[in-house]
């Protein structure tokens, strides 16, 4: 059975023209929680200000949903998340050569080492860690599998496969998720973007291939063309329930 991770408060707010104030985030969190989603990605505590305060406030609401915070593979980021006492620390690890070389000015060895350092720190503090495979759809299969195996060895039980630039089609993500599941005993979360209008279709395909977690936002809001629409996703998955 799949579980929904709602990222309206994090990725959803990155959409042009969308700006959620402190009170907005609190009300949205209550609404999202009422839909019985498994996890709410509440934001990025390292941004400070109202962003961090709203996440701290969420943790006192007694929500049924688990609350996670997004972090770069940076110890200071993680310290901010720990301040908020979130349930899950999400550590984003860029794994495409485009991001590693041109965004970070680094190499693959550096990425692996920084992931290890960050994951170890968060787990040492007693936190559940999810490793986000940022720009996974533009890396080599060999490096993708290598990073996942390294994460598994660190005790990570779930990785997020992020189609960061929204270039996948359903058949490609189905094959990719299947390959991961056949080679590494680890839970998979799929994060879609809607640049080609494929976010819902790709998310359904990922679940059919064995992904246990799938991300969505209310109204499909999100960076650039948006993310996977929660209502459309639920309807599509329910309609195909017999085959999932």
Automatic annotation (TrEMBL):
Keyword Metal-binding included in the entry's annotation: no
Gene Ontology molecular function, alphabetical: acyltransferase activity, acyl groups converted into alkyl on transfer
GO BP field: carboxylic acid metabolic process
All copies of domain Pyruvate carboxyltransferase, residue ranges: 2-244
Pfam families attached to this UniProt entry: HMGL-like
Alphabetic keyword roster: Transferase
Family: Belongs to the alpha-IPM synthase/homocitrate synthase family.
Name used for this protein in its record: Homocitrate synthase
